[in-house]
Design brief:
Layout lengths: L1 H22 L1 H16 L5 H7 L3 E12 L10 H11 L34 E14 L5 E4 L1 H4 L4 E5 L5 E10 L4 E5 L9 E2 L10 E6 L7 E12 L7 E4 L11 E4 L3 E9 L10 E5 H14 L5 E2 L2 E5 L2 H6 L8 E6 L4 H5 L6 E5 L2 E2 L3 H9 L6 E8 L2 E8 L1 E2 L21 E2 L4 E5 L2 H7 L5 E6 L1 H5 L7 E5 L2 E2 L3 H9 L7 E7 L2 E7 L5
Parallel strand pairs: 7-12
Antiparallel strand pairs: 1-2, 1-4, 2-3, 3-6, 4-5, 5-6, 8-9, 8-11, 9-10, 10-13, 11-12, 12-13, 14-21, 15-16, 16-17, 17-18, 17-19, 19-20, 22-23, 23-24, 24-25, 25-26, 25-27, 27-28
Length: 509
């Protein structure tokens, strides 16, 4: 009964509201005005779409693959051979060849003739490869998109909103920035207006236009969620909450002034589809890459020849670095520009030509955007002090992987003494130093306790204890014995050709 009363009161309330709606026009007018004001505060994207939509294109790509055409029964089709071998137990040599009744290779119809397959030349066949988006930069037909949209394509077909189709030529593509430039032959083509990604603000409205799942000229909207999101080696990406899905790649990110501020490139997803986070290549960087592609068909980047990583607060504190910033140098390639300038493993690069380095990504981008042959000044933090080094930039010639050397035990271990870090070390012989490319340090024979938990293992070389170079076992153990057991110490550890600081807390005596 109580529930019925409550419901009755609700009904009466609704009826009262209805009566107020019909019999109090003044109140209705005020509510409508309030709604109108609220609606007026929302963005209207219609003019942006009408202005920029015609310059956004659909990009289809095809790839030529070779197909082997076998004889009757596809006797030379390797996939079919493997299928019969795995699921029917037919040996590859018997597939497609005569056999005895009841045996593998024997046709079920006795009167059926069996012929040996005759291999033929592979035939080229064009197959669809993918669908993406792009936008026209100029009326003469230069189109910008993502490098991964056209990567591996033998044919690129660009379709405009008015259904005109063009076969495009790939001018150049840069995988590091994921930017590509293609050219279609046409005149008086609609084109976009380029804005500035440096001037965008977090929270401002933007829209994306593209072909998600092949649905041409789909418009989605959202806001700038973050700037300079460090997810790429050479480009800090723009993060948005604009809905982006497969097929949107290469399409423009457009601000409320109708200017392109980015190229929609990536999404964060656990399902393969949009989950509320998408990323765009900043248009300022993309245009710099595009100019190089237009001029030479490739992008030239500067190279220092160092392996770097971020600096943690714990490492900064241990090395008396005023702030946890910079790029820790874990490896210096022999003969590289960095090696010639005096950069050493264990250095922390804090400035590049006067520009402060906050993260390792900052250094990668600054170095990559510097023309080869340029003289630059790098500021390094070494052993508690800063120093400037002059470096002549080299040219990047592709990704290089450091070839690690196998761990080598000391043949003459000599006197071994454990210490409060859980390390047993031995002195390095001259031939070992030469092979490892070091001129000081001690070899780890065993690691237990704190050192083992920190990831140090036999075969590693301890090069430095905080800011002090390690020369031999006696000196190293002396340094360890004087360490404050309440504080972790930073050890510069070399493994193969790479070095890194490892934090180890001594055990209390």
């Amino acid at each position: 009964m109580k529930t019925i009363v409550t419901l009755s009161k609700t009904v009466l309330t609704v009826l009262s509201a209805a009566a107020a709606f019909y019999f109090v026009p003044a109140a209705v007018g005020a509510a409508q005005q309030a709604n109108a004001v609220a609606t007026a505060g929302l963005p209207d994207f219609t003019e942006l779409v009408e202005k920029t939509g015609p310059a956004v294109v659909n990009i289809r790509t095809t790839q030529k693959i070779k197909q082997w055409q076998g004889g009757p029964g596809m006797g030379d089709d390797e996939d079919m051979r493997e299928f019969f071998r795995r699921f029917f137990g037919i040996p590859p040599g018997q597939f497609g060849q005569p056999g005895q009744p009841g045996q593998p290779g024997q046709p079920s119809q006795p009167n059926r003739q069996h012929r040996r397959a005759v291999p033929q030349e592979p035939q080229e066949e064009e197959v669809p490869r993918g669908v993406g988006s792009g936008f026209i930069l100029s009326s003469d037909g230069y189109v910008m998109t993502n490098a991964h949209v056209v990567d591996g394509a033998d044919e690129v077909i660009v379709t405009l909103t008015d259904k005109r189709e063009f076969k495009a030529k790939i001018v150049g593509a840069d995988k590091n920035s994921d930017v590509a430039l293609v050219k279609i032959e046409g005149g008086n083509l609609p084109h976009v207006t380029i804005g500035s990604s440096d001037k965008i603000k977090v929270g401002e409205w933007v829209i994306a236009i593209g072909s998600p799942f092949g649905l041409d000229n789909t418009v989605t909207a959202g806001i700038i969620s973050a700037k300079a999101r460090d997810t790429g080696d050479y480009l800090p990406l723009i993060q948005t909450d604009v809905a982006v899905n497969p097929g949107n790649s290469g399409g423009p990110l457009i601000n409320m002034r109708g200017e392109v501020v980015g190229i929609n490139s990536q999404i964060y997803s656990r399902s393969g589809g949009y989950m509320g986070i998408s990323f765009a290549v900043p248009i300022d960087e993309a245009m710099r890459v595009g100019e190089q592609l237009k001029t030479s068909g490739k992008v030239t980047r500067g190279r220092m020849g160092v392996g770097i990583q971020d600096v943690s607060k714990e490492v900064a504190d241990s090395l008396n670095l005023p702030k946890a910033q910079g790029a820790f140098v874990g490896q210096v390639e022999a003969g590289s520009p960095a090696a010639k300038s005096g950069v050493e493993a264990g250095d922390i690069i804090t400035k590049f030509n006067g520009v402060t380095i906050e993260t390792a990504g900052d250094l990668r981008r600054l170095a990559g955007n510097t023309k080869p042959g340029t003289h630059v000044t790098v500021t390094v933090w070494r052993k508690g002090a800063s120093r400037d080094l002059t470096l002549v930039m080299g040219e990047m010639d592709g990704d290089k992987a450091a070839a690690g050397k196998s761990d080598k035990k000391s043949k003459d271990k000599g006197a071994q003494t454990g210490n409060a870090l859980g390390l047993v070390t031995s002195d390095l012989a001259d031939d070992q130093k030469k092979e490892l490319g070091v001129d000081h340090g001690v070899l780890v024979e065993s690691a237990e306790g704190p050192a083992q938990h920190a990831g140090i293992r036999p075969g590693d070389v301890i090069e430095r204890f905080k800011d002090t170079d390690v020369t031999d076992v006696k000196q190293f153990n002396s340094l360890v014995s004087k360490a404050d057991p309440k504080k972790a110490v930073a050890l510069l550890v070399r493994r193969g050709e790479s070095s890194q600081f490892v934090l180890v807390k001594p055990t209390a005596p």
